[in-house]
Amino acid sequence: MILTIAIREFKALFLSPVAWSLLAVLQFILAYLFLKQVETFMVLQPKLAAIPNSPGLTDIVVPPLFGNAAIILLLAVPLLTMRLIAEERRNKTLPLLLSAPLTNAEIILGKFLGCLGLLVIVIGLVTAMPLSLLLGGELDFGKLSANVLALLMLVSALTATGLYLSCITQHPVVAGIGSFGLSLVLWLLDTGSQMRDHRNEWLEYLSLLRHFQNLQSGLINSVDVVYFLVFISIFILLSIRSLDKLRWQK
User: Which of 37, 93, 148, 176 has a CA that sits 20 to 30 A from residue 126's CA?
Assistant: First the structure.
């Protein structure tokens, strides 16, 4: 049943202009940024050739591309997640969904996977850009894979956050703004301590940016992967609990 709900949600996204508009805008912006990074590499290549152990094509193109994609998706994901449950409540269709022979966990996981499916397509399109460089160059597939994993973990965490905010309000716009605000706070959590040159281990551990950058560097540490998995699980469980309260209210 989880897969059925996920497919239904995935199709519903593409029946609205939101998904198509998002894909088009993201591709246009990221393609421009990608070409700018390739141009930068072409300009620097003669100088880099004279430097031992200098950064290669992957180092100059891939991390900036995926870093820019992360920042853009930080804003874009709430636009997708804000309607998942909140729109059902606003349109008065949530009682019909809750009356179906489905558990709260199946509904939440189905909604989560359906939205994540679209974002996986976005990640695939982003990944295709550096892969196109294989026509005339070489790539470090280890670092490329690490960046793909980092972006996948991040968008999964953002989707789980947005889903929870969509569960606790019946206004999609409020859910979207709340999701973006919470994600931005978690993204920039340890920025202040860095500017003061004073490390705070708790803020560093809770920061989405810090764990994303750790994975993006190519050093896949179990601490960073576990952080994202725990983060996603917590917000999925909170969403299930919120839906349970709504079920009893109905």
Answer: 176
